[in-house]
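Chapter summary example.
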Amino acid sequence: MKSCILIALLAALASCVHAAAVPTNAPTVVGAVQPGDWLMGIGTTNSAAQPDYVITKRLRYTLGSMYQVNAVIIRELGAAQGGAPAFVGGLGSHDVTVVLVSARGRALHYRVELWGDDASGADLGPDRPLITIAEL
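The structure predicted for these 136 residues follows.
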């Protein structure tokens, strides 16, 4: 009887561990979209898979000094590959850095959304700010 309980417990544990390792396409939200914020820009980045390598993409988004980014939403596009955002820095400023890392031997395909507002308080209308994107 004790061995049956042990086997059932081990089977349940194994299924839980496997379930935790399943990749997902849930978005990663860093920061908070504030009232009055708008979608300042959308960018996509992708890299092909390379056997036995982890791909790291470092992206730097630079806006005009009158803008500030309050939130970054990162979504994995296509089938889940098991990668993840590793770092997002510069929230509350006009210069944001995002680092994306793939799973070993897998590809990267992400959409990055920048949400923020005009820090100067001027109403510039519906025009989106010019965003410079550099891959570091």
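To summarize the output: The two ends are 60 Å apart (CA to CA).
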